[in-house]
Amino acid sequence: MPMDEEAVAAMYRDHGAALRRFARGAVGSEQQAEDIVQEAIIRVWKLAPETTVGLRAYLYRTVRNLIVDEYRHQARRPRVVDSLDDGFDRAYDAERIDVLLGRVVMEEALLRLTAEHRQALIALHYRRLSVAEAAEELGVPVGTVKSRCFYALKALRSTLEEMGVEP
């Protein structure tokens, strides 16, 4: 099947920036992130060129899989080991990459919330402020903090589902 360059370009235009941020947070390199995103978009288009429902989640899963594949590929390459690296543990590294990917996904999801919802959520769940402390810091009533946090969590769940994160 010949590649529909316009369809691929539209997919890249609509989803490329978010996917690059996601990949860059995991691989650390702008060029490597760009390569991964391009590969993911082409793969997804080849497998399902007419798909629009759930496309973003499918793209995120494909990017994540490519990141994991790249990590595994690099882990198989011969390495120069010095005396400090004798305790290298691949299981630990696999856990570390999963934690890193989780953080990147959460950061991307939080960026999609409104500023007010994000501030309330971060104050209560990340900084562990009480509702009263968060209300004072944000300059809003206690009920507003509770409401913002409720709707922020609801929006966050929806965003994470869209990104392909399963509960």
UniProtKB/TrEMBL annotation:
CDD domains, A to Z: Sigma70_r4
Tree of life domain: Bacteria
Keywords: DNA-binding, Sigma factor, Transcription, Transcription regulation
InterPro entries assigned: RNA_pol_sigma-70-like, RNA_pol_sigma-70_dom, RNA_pol_sigma70_r2, RNA_pol_sigma70_r4, RNA_pol_sigma_r2, RNA_pol_sigma_r3/r4-like, WH-like_DNA-bd_sf
Domain RNA polymerase sigma-70 region: 11-77, 109-157
Protein name: Sigma-70 family RNA polymerase sigma factor
Native species: Arthrobacter horti
NCBIfam families: sigma70-ECF
Record-linked Pfam families: Sigma70_r2 (PF04542), Sigma70_r4 (PF04545)
Family, per entry: Belongs to the sigma-70 factor family. ECF subfamily.
